[in-house]
From TrEMBL:
Protein name as catalogued: Cation-efflux pump
Cation efflux protein cytoplasmic domain sequence ranges: 213-290
Classification via PANTHER family: MITOCHONDRIAL METAL TRANSPORTER 1-RELATED (PTHR43840)
Species of the source: Photobacterium carnosum
Location (main, coarse): membrane
Membrane topology, from the record: Multi-pass membrane protein
Signal peptide span: none
TM helices/strands, residue ranges: 84-103, 115-137, 158-177
Residues covered by the Cation efflux protein transmembrane domain: 14-207
Length: 309
């Protein structure tokens, strides 16, 4: 990853951190003043963003480092670990908010948040949605999964403020419905846990060496069909490391072809794939002869007129 990309990650994260501090302070303060359990929970959620922002700032120094002797495939898994950390923090915050909400429902004292709480929630929705869109755009520009995860953390904060605002308005018109604020806090919990799962699951799949992309095999086959000298491509394997993908596969050519020509064809095809497949950063290609022993997609058979090679 270039120095420009690293600086962009740092810049976007610092902007988000400053916004999170301001919003968390505003929401918790107004939540205390108005007695809004949901707004306080939302403020705690904003503070949790600071933890993930810190993880991004620290982690980006490691996952952007070039490959070395100890990490010949690069340091992309540090980005994966950062995503897992973000996911777990979200889950812990969500469970904590849910527990407090359930305890508050069982309490005999109830509050009636006013329009000040509504205003704070609306400001949070606008600011955090704007942060999500900006961060997501920057993440896509430099292809950073961790930065995109942090963008979704912003959106989860924006979404969590919506039920808060709705609960305040509903409480204003229906003051006898004492539990609306607590119910809104539980909805916030569900949203946070959902965001946590959506961040954690891809990272867990990556650590368990799951296939990187379900469509990448079709793409490789399509590109291989453009090369008349490539007879077959099979045993395509892909794995993700952070925001990048590593590939290896077998490539079959005419068994009468010279080693040098087969090598040149393979290198040209590799360069072509690296140019077309954005997330792929390295490819290992095993050259094989296109004969009956190696063919898999179009195997030889004795009764179909296919001459054994």
């Amino acid at each position: 990853m270039s120095k420009k990309a690293v600086k962009l990650i740092q810049k976007v994260t610092w902007v988000g951190s400053i916004a999170n501090i301001a919003l968390a302070f505003i929401k918790i303060t107004i939540g205390k003043l108005t007695g809004s359990q949901a707004l306080i929970a939302d403020g705690v959620h904003s503070f949790s963003d600071l933890v993930t922002d810190t993880a991004i700032l620290i982690g980006s120094r490691y996952w952007t480092a070039p490959a070395d002797k100890e990490h010949p495939y690069g340091h992309g898994r540090f980005e994966t670990l950062t995503n897992i950390f973000i996911g777990f923090i979200l889950a812990i915050v969500g469970i904590g908010i849910g527990w407090d909400s359930l305890y508050s429902i069982s309490s005999e004292s109830h509050s009636e948040p006013g329009m000040l709480a509504f205003s704070a929630a609306v400001v949070s929705v606008v600011v955090k949605e704007a942060l999500y869109r900006w961060t997501a755009i920057q993440a896509k520009t430099i292809n950073s999964r961790a930065l995109y995860a942090n963008a979704w953390h912003h959106r989860s904060d924006a979404l969590s403020s919506l039920p808060v605002a709705i609960a305040v308005i509903a409480n204003y018109f229906f003051p006898t419905f004492h539990y609306l604020d607590q119910i809104a806090a539980l909805i916030v919990t569900a949203m946070i846990l959902k965001a946590s799962f959506e961040i954690l699951w891809p990272a867990i799949l990556e650590l368990t060496e799951a296939k990187a992309d379900s469509d990448i095999e079709k793409q490789i086959q399509a590109y291989a069909a453009e090369y008349k000298d490539i007879k077959e491509v099979h045993e395509i394997r892909s794995r993700r490391t952070g925001s990048t993908i590593l590939l290896d596969f077998h490539l079959l050519v005419d068994p009468e072809m010279s080693v040098e020509r087969a090598h040149n064809i393979t290198e040209n095809f590799k360069i072509h794939l690296l140019d077309k497949l954005d997330e792929v950063v390295d490819i290992i290609i095993h050259i094989e002869p296109y004969n009956c022993e190696e063919r898999m997609l179009n195997p030889c058979c004795d009764d179909c007129g296919d001459k054994k090679e």
